[in-house]
Amino acid sequence: MKTSTTTIQTLSNPKIAIIITAAGSSTRMGSAVKKEFLPLRNGTVISSCAGAFLNALSPKYEITDFIITCRPGSEDETKEALKSCGYDGFSFVAGGKSRQESVFKGLLAVEAHGCNPDIVMIHDGARPFVTEKIILEGVQTALEFGASVPGLTPTDTQKEIDEKGMIVRHLVRSRLAAVQTPQNFNFAKLLQAHKKAALQVEQLAAGGIKKEFTDDTEIWGEFSGRVKVYEGDIRNIKITYQKDLDFLKF
């Protein structure tokens, strides 16, 4: 792999901020219990997420901020779901109406804290099987390239279709990636990219145009540059539907 000469890669002990998103409504689950709060191992889905980052990063890096975005009014419930981590450094931020808005609020909370982390890692609170390898490789790849995301080449042949369901383009599977989280970035640059994205969304809304960025790699790509994809893990699923609950038995 080509070595970058950027200043950030020479840091002997880079500082890391973590944002775990858990502000969604879990409507696709059709469950009375929010998916992040479902029991798993000796805790919950979200405590498994948080514990994975603490175990992987704490021995090697300084964690400046550990932000959990949650639904307004659910902070106490979220704290209870994280209790098994035995960690008292979490900060809780009420999420917004979209993932973009929730992450942006988390980034602003990190900025307000003033610790100036080098890397920010953004992870779905419903991906409890993230591995130490995925986390550590995410940090190192972001240090080298500025932005990184784990991804998998799809096993099925992919097609682009139109609004009527007709194939309009035959995509090359080897050039595609189904991206996962954590998505990892130079913190200062991602914060500025999010500020520009928020302004763009606001300006378009004033003209009656609805715009929403689906994830942070899209925002980075629009306002900062390219994102390096590294190898993901088929086990690193996001619990979304009832059928995904079978994975909780493993």
Describe the protein.
The protein is α/β, with parallel strands linked by helices and 250 residues long. Helices cover 31% and strands 22% of the residues. It has 6 helices and 12 strands. Strand 4, helix 2 (75-81) and strand 5 (90-94) form a beta-alpha-beta unit. Helix 5 (187-206) crosses helix 6 (216-223).
Task: Write a concise keyword list for the protein shown above.
alpha/beta; 8-stranded mixed β-sheet; 6 helices; globular; disordered N terminus
SSE arrangement, N to C = EEEHEHEHEHEEEEEHHE
Number of helices: 6
Low-confidence runs = 1-10
Q: Fraction of residues in helices?
A: 25-40%
Euclidean distance between termini CA atoms: 35 Å
Strand-helix topology:
Blueprint: E1 15-22, E2 39-40, E3 43-44, H1 45-57, E4 62-70, H2 75-81, E5 90-94, H3 99-113, E6 119-124, H4 132-145, E7 147-152, E8 159-161, E9 167-170, E10 178-179, E11 183-186, H5 187-206, H6 216-223, E12 228-231
Parallel strand pairs: 1-4, 1-6, 4-5, 7-12
Antiparallel strand pairs: 2-3, 6-11, 7-10, 7-11, 8-9
